[in-house]
Amino acid sequence: MKTYTSRNGLGEYLSGLRGGNKTIGFVPTMGALHQGHLSLIAIAQQRCDVVACSIFVNPTQFNDPKDLEKYPRPIQSDIEKLEQAGCDILFNPEVNEMYAGNEQWHLDLGELEHLLEGKFRPGHYQGVTQVVYKLFDIVKPDMAFFGQKDYQQFLVIQKMADMLNLPVKLVMCPILREPDGLAMSSRNIHLSAEDRRRALVLSKTLNWVKENFNTASIDSLQQESAAMISAEPGVSLEYFEIADGRDLHPATADSRTIVALVAAKVGNTRLIDNEILSS
Questions:
Q1: Which of 37, 106, 124, 190 is catalytic?
Q2: Does 37 qualify as catalytic in the annotation?
Q3: Would the pTM of this model clear 0.90, i.e. be above it?
């Protein structure tokens, strides 16, 4: 695996590959890699000639400095996992390689920026689009691969790509779960054993909604789901929404894709999860 810390070095190498008509798949990450990330690498390998992964903990998407500070950064372990997965290229830049001084960035993402995650993490998606645009500009991938767990993030990045006419195809990849159902997340390492057990209420509730989706109304499913999660000790529900998969407005009879999305604090750790109910 070739590793680059400078955008110029990476850009030159990728330019040579493109000259040889190689298709480039890209998996942007913030590190603390788990099997979910590696599943994105595997899907990218099936679809593209060369796979590049970035590890960059992006400061502009954290609205809580403490969250940024405690975000896990096990870079040596991450490198070993990428090498074992057969990743071709790692881009691992420092902050000053990605940002110069006080850069200004604002993209009018409309309502999508302020719903659900955007409501609880104001400014988050401006930071996400800022860094993903930079990474796309450096890597110039043919395809970029993102996890379904960050469903709203995928919609936001797709909107950015459409708005700016970026020549990249975005691919949403399925959520990977632990054997007991917990969605894989870099944040799971912060869960105590008790919190880890309590966190299962999220995936169990999503499963229950999926099983009952065709026999109960959306309103009743939403209310009962919120009650189930709120009843779990040590779990603080932020939202549980059954939404139209295209714009995250409340789902209606006309919604072709319907997705249930949840965010909650389990102990001190904020977790998100979702389940596509119909597509």
A1: 37
A2: yes
A3: yes
